[in-house]
Write a structure and sequence with these properties.
The chain is mainly α. The chain has one domain. It is 83% helix and 0% strand. The chain contains 3 helices and no strands. Helix 2 packs antiparallel against helix 3. The radius of gyration is 24 Å and the shape is rod-shaped.
Length: 83
């Protein structure tokens, strides 16, 4: 009786562990988008420190802001979706 209970308990744990492993989603998208956002931030810092007029025009400023927003929202969304 005790051996049967232990076997049942062990089988249940293996089943739960297998199900949990199958449900875990890939975090590759978050790593890629988060890495791109970090590289983008470093690039903006490097360019901004060298040029006092960066970005050169209002259109360029809107472009930099748009790219930054897209990268950050993408990283945030992928982190929530893969959590």
């Amino acid at each position: 009786m005790l051996a049967a209970a232990i076997t049942f308990f062990a089988d249940s744990l293996v089943f739960v562990a297998t199900e949990a492993a199958e449900e875990e989603s890939s975090k590759t998208a978050f790593y890629i988008l988060g890495g791109l956002a970090a590289v983008w931030a470093i690039a903006l810092f490097s360019i901004g420190m060298r040029s006092s007029t960066f970005p050169g025009s209002p259109a360029a400023q809107r472009g930099v802001i748009a790219i930054s927003v897209v990268l950050v929202i993408g990283a945030m969304a992928s982190s929530v979706l893969t959590a």
